[in-house]
Amino acid sequence: MAPPLDHRDRETEGTTLPSEDLLARHLVANGTGFRLSAVDPADTDGIENKKAAKKRLRAAINRLTELQSQLYAQDRWAALFIFQAMDAAGKDGTIKHVMSGVNPQGCQVHSFKAPSKEELDHDFLWRCARALPERGRIGIFNRSHYEEVLTVRVHPELLQHQRIPEGLVTENIWKERFEDIRHFERHLNRNGVIIRKFFLHISKEEQKRRFLDRMDAPEKHWKFSPADVTERDYWEDYMSAYEEAIRETSTPEAPWVVAPSDHKWYARVVVAETIVQALESLDLGYPTASPEAKEGMALARATLESESSVDPS
User: Fold this and answer.
1) Whole-angstrom Cα distance, residue 76 to residue 137?
2) What's the CA gap between 4 and 250, in Å, rounded?
3) Which of 12, 102, 246, 295 has a CA between 20 and 30 Å from the CA of residue 117?
4) What pLDDT, in 10s, does the model give residues 188-226?
5) Is the pLDDT of residue 10 over 50?
6) Residue 15's pLDDT is what?
7) Domain 10-288 superfamily per CATH
8) How far apart are CA 138 and CA 109, in angstroms?
9) In what order do the strands lie in the sheet with 107-111?
10) Signed CA dihedral, 169, 172, 178, 180: sign only
11) What percent of the residues of the chain are helix, what percent strand, and what percent coil, each to the nearest 5?
12) CA-to-CA distance for 125 and 116, rounded, in angstroms?
């Protein structure tokens, strides 16, 4: 099981990182009693402006670069970071900015769309289980198995496509899926996968503003679908589904982080500093060479140093 959550401060480029208060403010280690209405999507927790946020983000990215290198070299732990949000909340941009300093060889990103016929022929966790990161690597899920208790719950007709035997689709199906998810994530954690789940919490008003911005900018038209506006009719249903999902599946092994996202720059700081804290809790480091390996390096050094220099002319 992963070490207990700890919030350690580090000085990077003159910025204290991560901020214990910021992490504690948004991390939901135990979902009991969680209320989404208690989280202000416009919260910035005292970070003055975009410039100050960029400074903190840069510091976090620098630290993340170092930690990811150690994670890869140590090859013991895997890290899984899950992103869920309403449309236009900034998942893609957050992943792009926060992971900008990570070596692509040690990171894999999976964006889960509507399930394929093959995926529908398996249990609801199957397609995500196939995409889990290997030891030493960071895995990013852009949407995830949580769609099965979010989108499918808001649109229960989608259950018909899964062809689950009728007797198994009861009024307890969502409770049963929450239980399955908790057990799945606990299993992963017991086998060396550290998990953090991010809900980028945007207000309905800010989503509207961003949709209109996409319509006004030709280079953003590809991001917009009329179906996105149709889904706004189900806003309250989605908020209710998210609240219960967070309440039922926030555990010490796999906590949720609810990141206010009306200000993209603030959400990115929350995500970056949370990821840094999570990796720091693993006590990562570079492997120490064995006596045999050191002896081999000494022999290799002697061989190299004994080679005669070659005149390039």
Assistant:
1) 9
2) 14
3) 246
4) 999 999 999 999 999 999 999 999 999 999 898 888 888
5) no
6) 45
7) P-loop containing nucleotide triphosphate hydrolases (3.40.50.300)
8) 9
9) 27-28, 256-260, 193-201, 78-85, 138-142, 107-111
10) negative
11) 55, 15, 35
12) 13
Q: Contact, 84 vs 150, CB < 8 A?
A: yes
Virtual torsion, Cα 30, 32, 38, 41, nearest 10 deg: 50
Mean pLDDT of the chain: 92
Name the one residue in this structure whose structure tokens are 């060479």.
289
Lowest mean pLDDT among 110-119, 245-254, 259-268, 282-291: 282-291
Relative to beta strand 10-12, strand 15-17 is antiparallel
**Which residue is it, tokens 């400074």?**
55
137: Cβ contacts below 8 Å, ≥ 6 apart: 71, 72, 78, 79, 106, 107, 108
What is residue 49's DSSP assignment? Answer: S
Across 12-26, 130-144, 239-253, least confident range: 12-26
Q: Which two tokens stand for residue 100?
A: 């900008």
Alpha-carbon gap, residue 270 to 200, rounded angstroms: 10
Q: How many CB atoms lie within 10 A of CB 73?
A: 14
The number of C-alpha atoms within 13 Å of 302 and in the hemisphere containing its C-beta is: 6
11 pLDDT higher than 50: no
Domain ranges of the chain: 10-288
CA-atom Rg of the chain in angstroms: 22
Using the predicted structure, report yes or no on whether residue 274 has a pLDDT greater than 90: yes
